[in-house]
Amino acid sequence: MKATRFTRPALLLALVAMLSACSPGYYLRAAWEQTKILNRRHPIASIVADTATDWETRNKLLLVLQARQFAADTLKLNAGYSYTLFARAESDTLVMVLSAAYKDRFAPHTWRFPIVGRVPYKGFFELRDAQKEQRKLEARGFDTYLRPSAAYSTLGWFNDPLLSTLLRYDEISLANTVIHELFHNTFYAPGQAVFNESLANFVGGRGAIEFFCGRDGPDAATCRTATGAWADDVSFGVFLKGLVDDLETLYARPDLSRDDKLRERERIFSDAQSRFAAEVRPRLKVDTFAGFTRDPLNNATLISRRIYYDRLDLFERVYQSRGGDFRRAMDDIVAAARTNKDDPYGAVEALLR
Prior knowledge:
Number of domains: 1
Structural class: alpha+beta
Number of helices: 13
Strand content: 5-15%
Distance between the termini: 43 Å
Number of strands: 9
């Protein structure tokens, strides 16, 4: 099964759950699930060396070790011992992730946690618990979006293992995910979930290009696919920004009632999907956004996507301004973001002035 960019978010789920101010039951369940994962860990190197390991699994585990080493040695990310171990999950879905948003304004419902600040999603290990919370939010008038996730980061608090849920990814997505997650161990701005995830998306996408093109050569299929996948991410981010701008313009109109705005937004949603299918998708190099034209749209689904695709073109412009020196661009962006924790995007923009 080929992973899409919408089903592999790098969630800070375990850390959020264990430090949360939620109910004791939520806390205990999260701690129990994390303990089970940690207790199932086995060294990847020993699994690779085991002759009983099937060929496909061995190759993917070797790729993980190579991508991890590249992230540590070349990109200087804080790898620690993350992704040196493997843990088998009990199902294909690690957690269910719930997001919510106001219907008449483009603003997410957020949950506040220590250390990581406000986060526009909450993870659940049981589908029924997620659906119960979803129904409560919908009864309060929120848009909601419930989706599965197969990966998360604990920001280096634990030695994150590679979970078996990730082995269904293709090699480009797998390497991208490893680099993306290790970047979270290296940098995280509290309360800036959109900036953190979009920047990690840049590091994962551009990092995968550096990894595959350096390892396999610029003419290799892996290099071309990684390059195309990142170009598609940037294109989708630009398209998504246009859609969000249209919605924010609508929601700001004082001459329309709430009901009028809700009816008009449905037309905007429909037009956007038609325009994406006719104008954007045919230009994409790697078809990872097919779901956008068939999945229902609301503010929650769009905000959930925007978390990972916000202003990717800004990061790309910094990269181009550094002459294609990825390490320099990444380090400059991180250094700039550290200087202005309230407006990291503004700090990054200043790099181009």
